[in-house]
Design a protein that fits this description.
By secondary structure, the protein is of the alpha/beta class. Helices cover 43% and strands 17% of the residues.
């Protein structure tokens, strides 16, 4: 279940003394995870402050018992919690509607500065005492100069504000257009849009602190099926304390845990609930006709006590159709019997982590990726890149970037040959700071590259959830294209720059001669 994370943010709670680095595949997912973690810490901080305010140990034991019982009840009601919610995404809430901050620079009039410099009013005394007139005029000039300077500062601040506001609103509009495009693609049945939608739904699903949500989503359009690989909590992280008691003899607070059998049943109930809850959230939220079936595979990471090695096992697998699942009253079912009725697969007590084979597993291979062709080694002296076959040119560029990215441990894959403006190659850089997913397009042009090609690349980046886009050509880019990429994570490489890169890696006999 290894996922590639391209975004991360480290957050802190000074009061609790906690630090956590949140990782995600995309910016929107990172924002959701950060907000959720901060909310959990805020709740934990509130409880901790109440705890520290208690001086009597008996009272403390009672308080800790209340928290323990509350926590256990959270787990007993994992499924019921979501039944009272509408899991369908509100598209308008996905958009950014926060207005830009108001302009806060206070504009002062001339009278303010006259008073500040204590400029006296004209009087007949000045005709008798000329030095008073000079003093007044001197103060007036100081006030006028400061007023003029203030007006300049105000004008600059206002112009800067308008520029920031315009940029903010432009980015907001672009973001909201992406949401509209995502919605249109989702409702049209686009697989990536459906997967993204389900990811947001599952990320919105609130679980107790101990459960760190991690999952993979794959949509199979040929089967109208969503496959979920869900990382389930191991028994070690599930709370088992049911009571705290103050022992007068030991002068300490003693924790009372569930008995072994009771805990095993409790753990099994949690896994059944997470399974049913996830399936319910998908069917309830996905309102389009393109999803008929959900397959849930629940995985647990643990330490194999027989070998001491880290291990991972699928311990539950369930497949169900929308029609079958929507006929179930989840508020009244016995969780285990419901899973059994759905022909779910699990082996005995789930707390034993006995592995089972997934009914249908996620296909880890991206079918777009194809075997790379070796073009570099077959290049002849003075090879003109502008006249070579367009597909060979794409593979050639892929090989060049493979050499560049491999220096940092990255991986470059070339996609199926196509001339539709899609992805030509994808680079995966694991570096947590400067890494991410890079979309690379190679365009063997003789004429100036139109801005539409750059716009297409930007659209592909958004669709792929890429960190950066790179467009390589044998010709040059026009003014519109260069202007378009100014504020975007896109690098444009023209013909001469491409030759320089090849020369840098030892291929000095290549040339680009454009057919005018």
């Amino acid at each position: 279940m290894a996922k590639k994370y391209y975004y991360q943010k480290t957050i802190y709670n000074e009061y609790l003394g906690k630090v956590k680095t949140i990782k995600a595949e995309s910016r929107w997912e990172l924002e959701l995870k950060v907000e959720e973690q901060i909310a959990k810490w805020d709740l934990e901080e509130e409880k901790q402050r109440k705890r520290e305010a208690i001086l009597d140990m008996k009272e403390e034991a009672e308080f800790e018992t209340e928290l323990a019982v509350e926590k256990i009840e959270q787990y007993r009601n994992l499924l019921n919690h979501t039944l009272n919610l509408n899991d369908k995404l509100d598209w308008d809430q996905q958009k950014k509607t926060e207005p830009f901050r108001p302009f806060e620079f206070e504009k002062k009039d001339l009278q303010y500065f006259l008073k500040k410099h204590k400029v006296p009013k004209k009087s007949f005394v000045e005709s008798l005492l000329p030095f008073l007139k000079k003093e007044r005029e001197k103060l007036e000039k100081q006030a006028q100069d400061e007023y003029n300077e203030h007006l300049q500062e105000y004008e600059k601040a206002y112009n800067d504000y308008l520029a920031e506001k315009e940029k903010y609103e432009k980015e907001q509009d672009e973001y909201n257009k992406e949401i509209d495009e995502w919605r249109a693609n989702f409702e049209a049945g686009d697989p990536e849009a459906i997967e993204k939608y389900i990811n947001v739904v599952l990320e919105n699903s609130a679980y107790p602190e101990e459960i760190e949500k991690e999952y993979e989503v794959q949509y199979r359009p040929d089967l109208k099926t969503v496959i979920i690989s869900y990382k389930l909590p191991s028994p070690a992280v599930i709370p088992k304390i049911v009571e705290f008691k103050y022992s007068p003899t030991k002068q300490e607070i003693v924790a009372k845990e569930m008995k072994k059998k009771e805990f095993e049943e409790f753990y099994d109930s949690i896994i059944y609930q997470i399974t049913l809850r996830t399936i319910h959230e998908i069917f309830e939220s996905v309102y389009i006709e393109h999803v008929d079936v959900v397959v849930f595979n629940g995985w647990v990471d643990y330490v194999d006590e027989s070998t001491g090695q880290d291990s991972s096992s699928c311990i539950i697998s369930v497949q169900t159709s929308r029609k079958e699942f929507e006929g179930i009253n989840l508020a009244r079912v016995d969780y285990k019997k419901c899973i059994q009725n759905l022909k779910g697969i699990f082996a005995g007590k789930l707390a034993f982590l006995t592995p089972v084979k997934p009914i249908l597993d996620i296909d880890k291979e991206d079918n777009r990726f194809v075997e790379s062709k070796d073009i570099l080694s077959n290049l002849h002296s003075n090879q003109n890149l502008a006249t070579m076959h367009w597909e060979d040119f794409e593979h050639l560029v892929r090989q060049l970037f493979e050499k560049m990215f491999n220096e940092d441990g990255a991986e470059v894959k070339v996609t199926q040959a196509s001339r539709d403006g899609g992805v030509d190659a994808v680079a995966f850089d694991p570096d947590p700071i400067k890494g991410g997913k890079f979309v690379i397009q190679a365009k063997r042009y003789n004429n100036t590259v139109p801005v539409s090609a750059v716009r297409d690349l930007y659209g592909t980046m958004l669709h792929e959830g890429a960190t950066k886009g790179i467009l390589v050509t044998t010709s040059n880019f026009g003014k519109d294209a260069l202007e378009f990429v100014k504020d975007k994570p896109i690098t444009l490489i023209n013909g001469q720059e491409l030759l320089y890169l090849f020369h840098k890696y030892g291929y000095k006999n290549l040339q680009i001669v454009l057919d005018k």
